[in-house]
Design a protein that fits this description.
This is Glycosyltransferase RgtA/B/C/D-like domain-containing protein. Keywords: Membrane, Transmembrane, Transmembrane helix. The chain is an all-alpha fold. The chain contains four helices and no strands. The protein has one domain. Helices cover 67% and strands 0% of the residues. Helix 2 packs across helix 3. The longest helix has 29 residues. It is elongated.
């Protein structure tokens, strides 16, 4: 059995390498950059929203969508460092985008759109 006999094996191997590379590049030195101003505002809003349930829509007062802050609230329970929690949610969102793109590429390969 050759690697060329099973094209899905090549695609799976390429996807695995891509996912591994993504995770290494995103998590390597995740906290080495300083905290940006808007990042700290969103993380602080998440902390306030976690502490006071009546303020779950606090970002709307500044014209911001609250989805990111809602996703950071459970991460604040998992991780001690709020910056790491916020950046981890960003990595997870990037991973979801990568997974959607890889799925789309696999479907295009399946239908022969690339060759």
């Amino acid at each position: 059995m050759k690697l060329t006999d099973k094209p899905w094996l090549k695609v799976g191997l390429l996807a695995l390498i891509t996912v591994g590379l993504f995770l290494v590049l995103r998590f390597y030195k995740l906290l080495s950059l300083p905290v940006f101003v808007d990042e700290s505002i969103y993380i602080r809003w998440s902390q306030v929203m976690r502490a006071e349930p009546t303020l779950r829509f606090l970002p709307l007062s500044d014209g911001k969508q609250p989805l990111f802050m809602w996703l950071v609230i459970p991460a604040l329970k998992l991780f001690r460092d709020p910056v790491f929690a916020g950046r981890t949610i960003s990595v997870v969102a990037g991973f979801a985008t990568l997974a959607a793109g890889l799925t789309d590429c696999c479907q295009c390969l399946e239908f022969g759109l690339f060759y």
